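Consider the following assembly input.
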Amino acid sequence: MQLFAERGYQDVSVNDIASLARVGKGTIYTYFSEKEEILEACVSFIFRSFVEGIKKALRQSKDVESFLDTFVDTFLVDVHINSRVLFAFHRRVHKDKKKYECVSGEYRKMMESFYNKYRGEIKVDFKSMYALFTSFLMASYLAYESMEPELLKGVVKKGLFYSITSSPK
Amino acid sequence: MQLFAERGYQDVSVNDIASLARVGKGTIYTYFSEKEEILEACVSFIFRSFVEGIKKALRQSKDVESFLDTFVDTFLVDVHINSRVLFAFHRRVHKDKKKYECVSGEYRKMMESFYNKYRGEIKVDFKSMYALFTSFLMASYLAYESMEPELLKGVVKKGLFYSITSSPK
Amino acid sequence: MQLFAERGYQDVSVNDIASLARVGKGTIYTYFSEKEEILEACVSFIFRSFVEGIKKALRQSKDVESFLDTFVDTFLVDVHINSRVLFAFHRRVHKDKKKYECVSGEYRKMMESFYNKYRGEIKVDFKSMYALFTSFLMASYLAYESMEPELLKGVVKKGLFYSITSSPK
Amino acid sequence: MQLFAERGYQDVSVNDIASLARVGKGTIYTYFSEKEEILEACVSFIFRSFVEGIKKALRQSKDVESFLDTFVDTFLVDVHINSRVLFAFHRRVHKDKKKYECVSGEYRKMMESFYNKYRGEIKVDFKSMYALFTSFLMASYLAYESMEPELLKGVVKKGLFYSITSSPK
DNA sequence: AATGAATGAGTGTTCATTCAT
DNA sequence: TATGAATGAACACTCATTCAT
């Protein structure tokens, strides 16, 4: 994850990974059948942490606002690394919907739980809401390096709240 | 631009570009001294269109809201291609601030004009405002494929308006 | 000649030649059908100057020693450039005896005149004498940069005189 | 060495080397980090053999003449290949004195030992002597193909002896 | 006659992947 | 199971040569 975050997918060689992991290059292929699988594993790991974040937020929240409060805090932990890895992945599997769904399936399901739980408050359809979450959260990576963390959190929280609860008229 | 948008920088070979352009590989090097220069030219082209958009929006606007109204419409033309190319570029020149400033300089200046013109309404500092524009606009790429264009425009306009004019408290 | 002397054959591009000559690249091909012909023309030019040198030396000399005195002086003019060009050529046409004989034919004939004129003094066969001239003169390039010109001339004159007039026993 | 000797540096591709060595092109890069390093390795190998030759000659000799007798015999072994490789190298690193000194350093030191041991007999300064050795020995390559080996050896031995022991007046 | 834009074969080099040990 | 030497397809880039103007 460290390497993919620092340099993206293409600029990291299997050798780099093996070196950092202090194993032989061949050993990598005992556990992954190709380089892309390593990236997938990283992304799965990240999505699992998102799932945990949503679970926790769902448990502790009583409305969309309090959900976002907990979730965004969780999400923005490690945003520096996570989002870069996700970008690398996004670019990479762009057309291979299957692969994407495979690693993000559980996350999507949790988002559905959230959608269903607060269906009353949410004014956009699920697809749009999902897209808005993705967009806002990804965008926070781009802004991350130039903005105060607290300001960023505020913007993301309010921005998300605003866009999914206002009726688009 | 088409190729960089579809596949990013690394997954496009100079040969691919030459083939699509129906010229010989060598011909490319008559006009660009290295592959990266092609990407830079694309990005410069995009930024020039942004600059035009801002100029027009500044001329026609009388407040932040009307500015955003015009600007976002202009910006979201070709967002499909533009933002992917910008992403490819972003990843690529990430650390080479010089190169980035070189192509985005004029755009930044126009944003400064906007900032100065409506300084009264805008509640965040310039750096944050710039980061927010970048983030929102980039993020619209990610959302673009899953959302209704009109819905997206609305979200971006309101989201931007909201995040730069609310005091972060 | 300047370029070939400075950089050898391969490190000089047709473009370099055209630029230095202040003509278009295409113009080169009006006068030479391929790059190698340019080198050949240079070498022909050099050999013609050698031929002149031998002619003059033959006219003015009455024995091997006085011949060498005149010839070596003539030869070592421009040795810096000439020998580098000849080296470039030598390497290049190494196996193509035809090409070599073509440009050096007249020079060889003059050497034969010299050989025949002073056959009494010369103790090696023509082939060896020819090889020794070539060797000594070429070698002077390698020594040229580290030795006093006058010392070099002395060594070449005496070395040549010695090696062709001593009987090899 | 065979390929560099036959065709020089530029006309040998890494592919040619790999093919002749019956290994994959990539394998070459496991052992050499760039093409030039291969040439350097060849030249180092040759210089090591020269160093051995001088050591042996110094051990067995009691004057300049007997030194040359042993040394030239050693030197002219493989002259066919060695000198062509050295020429390729000479042209190549011509301006990069560092690289040249790096591979020829030990050889130069041995020549200094020789110079110091027989300082009484030698009439030129070290630099000139070194240049003369280089020139004569290199020149023997050019003559090699047209002269009887024994005749050549004789010429080189006597030529060298003569040029370094006669006072240049 | 002079040009230089266009070309593509050829180069050095990288790197994901394989496989014998 | 762990390894890294070996591999060759693929890449960015160069340059002698052509040819329409």
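The radius of gyration of chain A is 17 Å. Ask yourself how this observation constrains the way the partners meet.
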